[in-house]
Amino acid sequence: MKSFEGKVSDGLKAALAFSCLDFADLKALGVAVSGGADSVSLLCSLKNILPEKIALKAVTVNHNIRPESETSGDADYVESLCKTLGVPCVRYEIPRGLVEQNSLQENKGLEDSARKLRYEKFSDFMKAENIDFLCLAHNKNDQEETVLMRILSGSTDLRGIPLARGRFLRPLLNISRSEI
Fold first, then answer.
1. CB 3.0-4.6 Å disulfide test: which of 26, 39, 161, 172 passes with 139?
2. Where are the beta strands (DSSP E) in 6-49?
3. Does residue 34 contact residue 118 with C-beta atoms inside 8 Å?
4. Which neighbouring-strand residues pair with 152?
5. Across the strands, what pairs with 90?
6. Which of 90, 2, 1, 6 has the alpha carbon at shortest distance from 48?
7. Is 75 helix (H, G, I), strand (E, B) or coil?
8. CA–CA separation, 28 vs 128, rounded Å?
9. pLDDT per residue over 95-146, tens digit each?
């Protein structure tokens, strides 16, 4: 049976292949870390499996949606973990109230607004840190939930989350949450 890190390595190679690349093409790889089990597992695995010549850098985004002690606590934890692992970490703070304001202005839910702002910060991070690709921690359960939600909403588009889209890679997409 393959180890968790072996599965992450396979997932990363598959995502890179989907983008017509391999490890040899990478100089710097980013990882988005929220502080949850999925992204923390991805961070730790990437730290252990990447060749030394590939710089690993982390990004965390504090959306400031929850009470300050909770939302700052997640970002503080990510920064502390990254320091322990020797992985540089960039923290972005979305001003309190901006997610809600954008949600109302664009007539979208909070999650959609938070996602839009988060991806803007991810793009800023990749540009500022010369990151080739950013790994996200979507997993097999997220994939199944996405397809199910599309079925329930009556969508004819039953594609799930792509393994790679542009410069975003999802190495955990074939790993279940229980394995994580």
1. 172
2. 28-32
3. no
4. none
5. 59
6. 6
7. helix
8. 12
9. 999 989 988 998 888 888 888 999 999 999 999 999 989 999 988 766 666 5
